Amino acid sequence: MDKLYHKTKSAESYQRNKINPDWLKSRQEYSSSRRRFKKSEAVQRFGGLCSNCGGEYPDAVFEFHHMKDEEKDITPAKLFLLKDETINNELDKCVMLCANCHRVEHIRLEYKAHNKRYD
Asked: Where in the sequence is the domain holding 19, given as residue range(s)?
């Protein structure tokens, strides 16, 4: 697809949202609730506990850590926007950690993004 197509679609979307802001708000609410539901299902799949500290937390606290970074096909931040089959395939490569344990794990592994922050 060419740039003109995308530019036209973008302009159409902008006009639709400008004319009907309620549509945009309802679409955003639907998307957010769908992502939360899919994450909740994933948390339950992993037993609802951090695999490192064993803590039980609200779903929002949990993150999915790839055991082998080179096997990561999809970043977990975008994962719950996709089809269930794709989500399950990616989660098979992960462990579920609470946010704190996930940060500690990345520092322990000398994750390159964290090294940039501390240099």
From this structure: 3-118
- 65 forms beta bridges with 95
Give the mean model confidence (pLDDT) for residues 24-45: 91
Structural domain count, the chain: 1
pLDDT in tens, 47-75: 999 999 999 999 999 999 988 878 888 87
